[in-house]
Amino acid sequence: MTLTAGLEVHQQLDCGKLFCSCPAGTGSPDPGFSRRLHATASEMGQVDAAAAAESVRDFGYHQGDGNCLVEADEEPPRGPNPEAVDIALQVARLLGAQPLEEVHFMRKVVVDGSNTTGFQRTALVATGGRLEYDGGSVDIEQLCLEEDSCRRGDGNDEFLLDRLGVPLLEISTAPQLHTPKAVQAAARALGRLLRACRVRRGLGTIRQDLNVSIPQGVRVELKGFQDLGTMPQVVEREMERQATLAAVEACEPGPATEITMLLKKQREAWGCRLPGWAGLLGSPEFPAGHPRLGRELADHARRAGVAGLLHSDEIPAQGVSVDEARAIAVKLGCDALDAFILVFEKKEVAMAALERACDRARQAGVPHEVRRVLAEGSSRYLRPMPGAARMYPETDIPPLKLAGREVDLPPTLDERSAALPLGAQQAEQLVRASLDGRFHTLVAAGGSPKLAARLLLHHLPELRKAGLPAPGKAALGELLEAVASGKLAKEGVDDALVTLVRGEALQLESGSEAELDTFIDGLLTERKDFVQQHGMQAVGPLMGTVMSEFRGRIDGALVSERLRAKLEKFLG
């Protein structure tokens, strides 16, 4: 099966917000304000399909500790943030993309509640370029700078404003990825390239979307990858889903009909006939690979505010018996090849939900849509595919000239790793965790490269696991000096760190080689029978005893060397 895919990566930048001076703090459900957002026509005179699919409802917004008027859409935006523009230009240079001479911000209609304004500001910054990845390369189509959206609160229509306005880079590749593994490799390579610049790290700071199609299907956007490990699996499932749906024919649903009187459990209910769709709606008991169109119709119906719908393939369920299903089928005019769907709601809501579900049933094959990626590797319908009708010019932000604007090119992660006097694995770990800057500081303060790496990768993380704070700069300097002077062995670093965190002075009592030799001689005499029985295999048990006496006072390598030499001589 042939795959055609293009990648979209959205990366938050590590600087202030794009159109105000607020930091990205932590939102809290304080008393906020509400907005009602409407889908409106763009300058083309058309209402975008994705905007039209949203219901008009009240959204609640919470600002936490802030009171920013830009976030609340009570004053015009400022900016854009010059730091964010420079980072965008750095990424463009790393990709070999060509920046535009002048940038014009646009408004992208978004009325799902994730923006207080009802639109997202975005600007095309650069085009062209190429990304090299393990196994191939892919062209870069465009690089945009935009504001991030709100994140959801506890309620269905509640949003927190802490993330709103955080600068976001959107990088789109050409549809030149033809295997699930290539998609994953390209996403990894782009994420690694972005970390050479000032970008945010952590869950939710980078989001990958994917446009996927097969010859018998259409372009579908898979939105919200978080785990690159599952990306090939999600792509394979989407290819299989499109291949299955390609054989499905559209149907013209029957009229919405009230069937309340046919149910023993009295509740208002409405239904529609789906000609020729018997067996296509499915249920969780159906085998893997079934189109499960009932779930797809339910996802569309939910956009009207219902909890879901019931269909003929899953009855008996939700209090509807087999006998009642037969009566409903007769009422709706169904024959053996037909299916039906039911909604249990008041007439106005039920009619809106059924109409959305029926619109989906009228689509043959693979719908042109945006789907949300789920943690288990599948996807669900999110909204129709947006188009050009959602864009119109931003009038509050003047054009930004980029011609002649120069930025310093940051070193890549590979270049930063190569600059560390360590093995490849340790260097990679430090750079991946953005600890190479601290590493250079520790080495400059007198620490050996190996000790500095162990401190950052092992000793300090162990302190955090134990719930202890990291020691300050002066305390770390004292520790490095003690190790460098031989007053503290590397085996004693953990205990020394705990001592420093508690504010106590280091007890530096280094042991002499003479003292070590005397202790080993006495130990061999004391355990003569054990040594003669096990020979050189006795080194391990004896080493533990010697280290318990000299840990932190004499280097473990020297202890091992002296113990082996003494043992060989003792055995004769």
Task: Quickly describe the structure.
By secondary structure, this protein is of the alpha+beta class.
What does the secondary structure layout of this molecule look like, with pairings?
Blueprint: E1 4-12, E2 33-36, H1 49-52, E3 58-62, H2 82-95, E4 98-99, E5 102-103, E6 105-109, E7 119-127, E8 130-133, E9 136-147, E10 151-152, E11 158-160, E12 167-173, H3 180-194, E13 206-213, E14 220-225, H4 231-245, E15 257-258, E16 270-274, H5 293-302, E17 310-311, H6 322-332, E18 339-343, H7 347-361, E19 369-373, E20 379-384, E21 391-393, E22 400-401, H8 413-418, H9 424-432, H10 436-444, H11 449-465, H12 473-484, H13 493-501, H14 513-526, H15 528-534, H16 539-550, H17 556-571
Parallel strand pairs: 3-11, 14-19
Antiparallel strand pairs: 1-12, 1-13, 2-3, 4-7, 5-22, 6-7, 6-21, 7-9, 8-9, 9-12, 10-11, 13-14, 15-16, 16-18, 17-18, 19-20
Helix pairs in contact: 3-4, 5-7, 10-11, 12-13, 14-17, 16-17
